[in-house]
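Sample intake sheet
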Amino acid sequence: MRDLPLEIIDRIVHFLPGGQDERRKGTPEDGRPRLAPYAAISPQFLEAVQRRVWRSLYVSTCLLDDCAQHLQGRRPGWLRSLTFRFDLPDVETAKLGWYEQPAETVAASEEFGLHMRRLFDILSRLEPKGTHDVHLHLADVAHLEAPDDMSYRGRTRITLPRADELPLLHCVSRLSFAAWRRQPAPNVQLEIAARMPDLTALHLVLHQFGLKDSALLRQDRRSLAEALTTYSEQTRDVAHAGFSMILDSRSFLRHMDPRAYDLLGASLRGWSQRLTSLRVQGVFNASLFWPQASESNDDKSTVKEPEWPGMQSFEVRLERYAPDLQWYFVPPADPAQDPKFQLLLLSRDEPIEIPGPPYSDDSDEEEVFAICNIPHEDTMQPLFASWAKALSRMPSLRTARIVFRVEMLNIQARKVSLQDWAVVYEAPGHQNKDAAWYDKLSPQERACRRLIFHNTRGWRPTQDTLDLLKAVGSSSWPGTEMAVLAVFWDTIVR
């Protein structure tokens, strides 16, 4: 055992109980396996265990100073992942759902800024000791002893005071955010990222769950859109980006103003043009892909057409409605003939009531969502026309997809469930082993450019858009053909 190479011992430790747990959180009493006993096997195992334990840390504000004191010797050079949680002072439970007085918001913001400064100071002191290429995940901002039922998500947004005075962190190469219980103004995420000049990967989160204030909902989207433009130069080296919009559809549909122009799609489109990969999830319209007439008072010909010269992977997951509350999917024209309704009728003793329009103030949104599974041509066709134009400006593209989640009938399981409705582009030789159709591709199809319609049940874009999609990748892969495939569930329909 003592003669084993350190690389082999590292692999052994990786597969030991607790070795794959990269979030060192909690106490020994929490029931999770610990690696510490294995450190006594030999000096080599001690080295491997220490490397594994200090590779990934989960720290809250109350433990930050203790953690910094223990990051001595070679340990700073082992650190690759740091998950951090901000703990703010208690808030009276009875007041959690109330809006704050301005002075209370300022106090919470100052406390948040103080903890952020401590975190940045400590990481900047670790850089000369070997800390580099760290993934910093800012997991949560929460009031101590507050309940976990998200009852204070609608409170006033906190800010990051004096963000431009934070030290520059060269040791962080990846930065990600989660759905904080105490939400910041969305521009705070870009203010933090701007202080990390060597950042190559960034994942942003816009949390709009349970909002009951239409002004706050629009303000959040505008704040993030403006921050993407303001900090574009400071984040110019980011190559891989993700954006997740966490929302409550019922709240969004009730409080989003369809008359208000939404800046976020256009701003994200402009910011993304230097990226290598982008994953987006949320509520957007065609402006995410291509300039729209509403973006300029001038003639459309004067609007600069976007280019994504380095984009290799482009994935977009959309809700079934746009920011202006236009729907991409609507109920079947004849619901009684839809297989889903036939199944529902078979499973109920009493006839079901067929809802009316996709959304109204007095309708049951959950029941309405369950039947919106037919593409609405007036909104879907312009969306795909813009998507096709965007893909035509991505010469390095390896894969792209646009995905919706809609209700579909699983005849074998005799149930209706949400499944992916997707259109996918894949370059020759691209391997996506998680795709339902991957193992069923023929060798000839693997060598082709592929345009895949997954669970679209015969829907296609207009012929002009389809011709543009068929041409995607033709200049990058000369001499290759485009294979157009229809996939239903996991079966290629030939």
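Comment: The radius of gyration is 25 Å. The first strand starts at residue 56 and ends at 60.
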